[in-house]
Amino acid sequence: MDMPQGDSAATIPYTESQHAFVMLGRKTLFLWHLTMLHMEEHEFEVVLRATLTPEAVQAWQADSSRHPDETYFLGNVTTDLMAIPELATGARTSFTASIWAGLPVQHTYTHWPWDGIEPIVADTPVTVDRVVAFRHFDLQQNYPESLTYLLFGSGDEAHMGHYQTREPDFDEAISLAAAPPWLPAPLLEAGVHVNFPDLPATPVRCSSPLLNENYMVRYCGQRSSGNPSKGADGLYPLQIDRSLWFSTKVTNATDPCQT
After folding, report:
1. pTM reported for the whole predicted model
2. I want to staple 158 with a disulfide (CB 3.0 to 4.6 A). Which of 24, 176, 178, 199 is the partner?
3. Is 159 within 8 Å of 176 (Cβ atoms)?
4. 160 DSSP assignment
5. CA of residue 121 relative to chain centroid, distance
6. Residue 42 carries which DSSP code?
7. DSSP secondary structure code for residue 17 in this structure
8. Model confidence pLDDT, tens digit, residues 77-92
9. Which backbone phi and psi does 100 adopt, to 5 degrees?
C-alpha cells in the first residue's frame, strides 16, 4: 500500500507553557481557562474544579472582600510549565501557581501579562480535583444557532463560560446569582450547555451580550415535547450575578473590537 507523501518530521505542535484561569466560586473553586484561538497550546475550552491551601484561600478571599468587584486570575508559574492535555489525561493532577487581581491592560498580549507584577498569592500548590470540561476547538465548525454557554457549578453556586467556536469570537466567564433549581445537581456538576434562543450567536461582540439580570434559556437545545417537567417551550429561568471576564483581544489574533 502506498503511504501518503510528505514531511515525515511534521508533527502537531505540543508546547508546555503558562496558562491563565479565571477564578470562579467562593465555596467551591472552579478555574476557567483563558483561550487564544490562534495559538495551539491555548485552543482549549477547559474548566477545572480545584483546591487551594487554606493559606492561599485566606489571602485570596481577604483581598476579594476588600475589592468585591475585582476579578482574580490564577496561572501556573514559569518553574512549573504544563500542557493542557496533561490535565485531561490525568498525567497532571496538580501544579504550582500564583494569583493576581485583575488583568493588566496591554495593546496586544504576546507575553505573560503579569510579568513583573506582585501577585496576591505566590507559588502556591493547586490540586486539580476534577476536569469538568475539556474541548479542543475544531476550527471548521460553524457557530451555534443561538448564543450558547457551558453551565457548571456545585451546591448553590453556578457559573457559565461562553461556548467558543473559531475566530472571530469572544471569551466570557459569568457567575450566576444561584444554582438553577430546575437543573439536577449531578448535571450541574458535570456541566451542560444552555442556549439563549432570543440572542443569535453573533461572533463579533465587543461587550457582554448578557446585560440583563434575568433570562430564559433552553437546556441543551431541547424544545418542549409535552413533557410536564419542561418549562414553557422548553425554557428555564437563569439569574445573572456578574460577568467576571469578557475578552476579544486575548482570544483573537486580530482583535475585532480594536477600534
Report:
1. 0.93
2. 176
3. yes
4. E
5. 21
6. G
7. B
8. 999 999 999 999 999 9
9. -125, 150
